[in-house]
TrEMBL record, chains A, B:
Family: Belongs to the group II decarboxylase family.
Composition-biased stretches (Basic residues): 173-188
GO cellular component, one term: cytoplasm
Keywords, alphabetical: Decarboxylase, Lyase, Pyridoxal phosphate
GO biological process, one term: carboxylic acid metabolic process
Cofactor(s) in the UniProt record: pyridoxal 5'-phosphate
Name of this chain's protein: L-2,4-diaminobutyrate decarboxylase
Length: 517, 517
């Protein structure tokens, strides 16, 4: 029996061999960055591999047979970020060492909601949080944080702690009959004032100021928390938050505010001017909270060349990082950090079966109050192993390699007669589009629609051919369809990138020619 | 270089060997269900293994060295659910086949928020959801669902969809100038009425009725969504929701309501009378939503012997399951299911870089609208492999084995002069406490406090000795400290369980004797 409870080493060894062989076989089946044929064909192939009859049959096929067949199917049916022509999203090719570390976690199945489910795992997460806090520029002895499912959860936590804190501060200010600037990065207020009785403060209508290029999860998180007023702040031509626009927005909203800045926008990789934003937020006359969504750009902290672009990040009240982007972890490896305990009372809970007070006092640390989840796998472990294995220099070199690839892509695009760069390269994202010969300056609705369709068709054609995964989004004042390369594969070469862009252009030429009468 | 982008098979093969050897070495280091010495000693050992200097050094130690050392540390420092004496929580010993399947996911790093990050993974999740819907008793062709991080997220989603739907229905009723019973399990209303404009409906003060034995995440989720009124419903002596109490609560709250029933309470494994509750909710005169938290008890559906205890589950408006409990998956493997599309409009979003409308129309399915997350690992894959590998019969046999162990434990406790059973066995949880010889009937605050301390001390002593992980919670009208066995290891034997209970009793005897003057 390959059941649990046995020392699983032998079973697991055999089954891992099956997995690795199926990964190899599936890659050979695919022979490109993604399966060819388009979504209907891929769906049918997946269903065929899942087998006839119900997915949960009365009697099973046995471990090796099911594992081998389904792993081969998943591999053949994947858009593999380890292929240089798979460059559409911020899902990275993960490091083998992180994948192997995560296997240990799967095998041991610890959970961070109580000490007795993760005696060592608890300390590992605390240490990973401290290391990342130091990287961000927070004092690691005071910083608090958690490993999350990603930027979406981290942004939600930023809004949650921020709205709780600013709401509480506003209540305290009103109680004192005055409204003055809060102490920025102040120590937490008296705990008695921040207790559960005041939780209603977090549901107040605190407006959220975020650039129009911020991630959609900011709006979604605000809606979830009932912070219905999300105020979009304009961006400059490089998709960075416009500081003058923020100043004006802050002047219009002179009560408590949350400001969300972005370090690495999803579409352009742009980094908002964090230091200037922090200054503005600090001088706001009412309680405020600055959350920085550095899910994409936080990886630049590993790089000596690029870390300076995040100057001001250490002035944030909370920060989101994602090490499953520029950190080469298998998802999820999100991180949420704050410089102090401020705001965390919102999540505190004493639950009889998890963290009774006397056990907490006795040192059985429960991380229940660090997360919106209860059961929580220590995704921190793969991060810890990666950090010890590679060190900052190798991680920084990987970031630099991706940045180099993006710079190369930008030059190729700038030199190409039918490719048009839409934003400067900041990190490893390249935003551009194909503009066929003979196109005007892009004015006119009809021409815009034609260009939109053409660029959308380039991407679909490449997907359906199984030839490349190129990203798509909208950009510019007219929300025109653009293409995007997210270059997260440091093992890709400049030649790979040149070839990918040549393929994009040739596909555009072909589709444009087909469209001729 | 063991970096990403290479065909990782060879690197990964080597590193997996390192992982397996370190798992073996760490288990030998531990030589028990958890590390001995108590939290301070475990913390120091973990810090020592993380190495001197910063966790993120300038230059790393190399993959094999870091992976081997840290995996050995994590293993030695784990409370291993594969050990029969580790029986405190609902984290299970995972199946080797599920662990191996999850490795494939880590390697390929797909994400379900857009088709082009998970072409096959998208279909896998849809098929797993359909299979689980069928297991629950929903029509799999109409059911909708998602794989979640666990019961906490699933419960939040139930509250979110439920409050949105009941709020919307109440708004529609008022608009029509009447308030009648809704059609239970009705088809979704006209989409135009459920659009985004009405989202504010979800923030309404819909009360949440949930038994006092329900999971803490219900209250936490309600607070997050601003549904501040959580009405506790009394339980009977077996910790099941009292139907008369629910009837009275529904009579007091004659507007829109959410009712959360529990199939498998955390502390006693009790299953609320689902069919009777569903009848009551159905006859409520205002819009209502019944969410069933079957995170623990849902596993009984695999068992012919126990599935009948969940009769009525198919009448729910939403259901939470956790296959990282009685499903032997490595966490996370939560599931959220609904019988129809009703409520899901709350999560719909069209995002330019993920799911532009024309691509969705063309069949590039994005599961973005199925989740509160954006990046989302297909945890469905390990479930799919497990289902195909084991079939329902083997999974059912595992559930029955755990149930047998719990019944055995209950008999041992009932026959023991100093152990006292606190609830009947329903699933695989055994709630009990140690009562020393010469104790009265448990009345009197002083005696109650002494018993509480004694039972808490038994657990701590066993933890600090590295001898056993026994659960702890409060139970009964006086919230007395009790001990708990959660028997999720089907490879454990009745002899193991007898020995564990004998150890608990002997530890109680020893501590009671030490307390004598």
């Amino acid at each position: 029996m390959t059941g649990p409870g046995h020392q699983p080493a032998d079973d697991l060894r055999t089954l891992l061999r099956v997995t690795l062989e199926a990964l190899d076989a599936g890659r050979r089946d695919r022979s490109g960055p993604l399966p060819a044929g388009g979504p209907a064909a891929v769906r049918q192939a997946t269903l065929d591999a899942l087998g006839p009859g119900p997915l949960l049959p009365r009697t099973g096929d046995g471990e090796a047979a099911a594992l081998g067949a389904l792993t081969r199917m998943l591999t053949a049916g994947s858009a593999d970020p380890a292929d240089p022509f798979c460059a559409a999203h911020l899902h990275c090719p993960p490091l083998a060492v992180a994948v192997a570390a995560d296997l240990a976690v799967s095998t041991l199945n610890p959970s961070l909601d109580s000490w007795d489910q993760a005696p060592a795992g608890t300390t590992v997460e605390l240490e990973v949080v401290a290391a990342l806090a130091e990287l961000v520029g927070f004092d690691p002895t005071h910083a608090v944080g958690t490993v999350t499912t990603g930027g979406t959860e981290s942004n939600l936590m930023g809004l949650l702690l921020g709205s709780h804190t600013t709401g509480q501060a506003a209540i305290r200010s009103r109680a004192r009959g005055r409204s003055g600037p809060r102490a920025h990065h102040g120590r937490p207020g008296p705990r008695a004032q921040l207790g559960r009785a005041g939780r209603g403060g977090s549901a107040g209508p605190v407006p959220v100021l975020c650039s129009a290029a911020g991630h959609h999860s900011v709006r979604r998180g605000a809606e979830l928390l009932g912070l219905t007023k999300v105020v979009p702040v304009a961006v400059d031509a490089a998709y960075r938050m416009d500081v003058q626009a923020l100043r004006a927005a802050l002047a219009r909203h002179d009560g408590p505010v949350l400001v969300v800045a972005t370090a690495g926008t999803t579409d352009a990789g742009a980094i908002d001017p964090l230091a200037e934003i922090a200054d503005l937020v600090r001088s706001h006359p009412a309680p405020s909270w600055l959350h920085v969504d550095a899910a994409h750009g936080g990886g630049a902290l590993f790089s000596r060349r690029l870390a300076g672009r995040l100057t001001g990040l250490d002035q944030a009240d909370s920060v989101a990082l994602d090490l499953h982007k520029l950190g080469w972890q298998p998802a999820p490896a999100g991180v949420f950090l704050t410089p102090s305990r401020r705001g965390w009372s919102r999540l505190e809970a004493e639950i009889a079966y998890l963290n009774p007070a006397d056990e907490t006092t006795a040192g059985y640390t429960s991380l229940l109050g660090r997360s919106l989840r209860t059961t929580r796998r220590p995704d921190a472990f793969k991060i810890a192993v990666t950090f010890r294995a590679l060190g900052r220099e190798r991680l920084g070199a990987m970031v630099d390699a991706c940045h180099d690839l993006a710079e190369h892509a930008a030059h190729v695009i700038a030199d190409h007669p039918r490719l048009e760069l839409a934003a400067p390269v900041t990190l490893s994202t390249v935003l551009f589009r194909y503009v066929p010969a003979g196109t005007g300056t892009g004015t006119g609705t009809e021409e815009g629609t034609r260009l939109d369709r053409l660029n959308a068709a380039i991407r679909s054609r490449l997907l359906d051919d199984g030839a490349a995964v190129v990203g798509r989004t909208t950009a510019g004042p007219e929300a025109a369809v653009h293409l995007k390369l997210t270059l997260l594969n440091p093992a890709a070469t400049a030649a790979d990138v040149s070839a990918l862009l040549a393929l994009v252009a040739a596909t555009g030429d072909r589709i444009a020619a087909e469209a001729q009468p």
